[in-house]
Amino acid sequence: MNHPHRTQRGHHSQAGRDRQPGHTVQPALAALRTRLNTHLGGAARAWLDRALDEAAAHPGIHGPISVWELRIAEAGRRCGPEYADAARVLLLHAARADPDALARVYRQGTAAERRAVLHALPHLVPGPDALPLVEDALRTNDTRLIAAAVGPYAAQHLDPHNWRHAVLKCLFTGVPVDEVADLPRRAHSDAELARMLGDYADERAAAGRPVPEDLYRVLALTDPTATPIGTPGSPGVPGLHGIPGTSGTSGTPGKES
Q: Which helix (H) or strand (E) holds 128?
């Protein structure tokens, strides 16, 4: 059963959050909220409305754990695994999580919560301050964390050396290179990346192991004559590269939430 007065209250609360100084909702996140409102059931939408209101009313870190951090932990159960990452990104934004708050959620959270922090970085951290979180994720063998780590934030802030190794890590672990944000632009005319890819292909061939098709795709992009085409976002919602629930092609969720 629909409750028009609840919907209206939610819109007013969202508008209030949008008017707070220095805290405007980016078009990509507004589109994400609209998508969740379309796909979530009534109980999940009501929970998310309340959780976002709480986060906006009490932003930042408060004591051992903030109320919005509790909601981050609940999101999988409340919204389901398909939409949990997206809900957590919205909660982190509503809470105006700074690099310290993001680091705390990342350190203390489950793999799913860490993944949401990585997805939220381009919407919350304008500079390279959160790179240690990306670098930590890239040291793991968790393919979903790696996929989240090579999103738009890494594309913008990772230095060439670490970015090349991130691409190689995707090839080592089987993460599709489609997950690497802005790959064509960053790979363009990168002779060092081409050398690394060639060495890896030679190692695989010498060991009698197949060379991943994705390696040849990336190698072609390093050609100076290739036309670099940026990939700033996912096909589903621009600016939300890889977040499960925002497209049918990227960031496919599993059971973990």
A: none
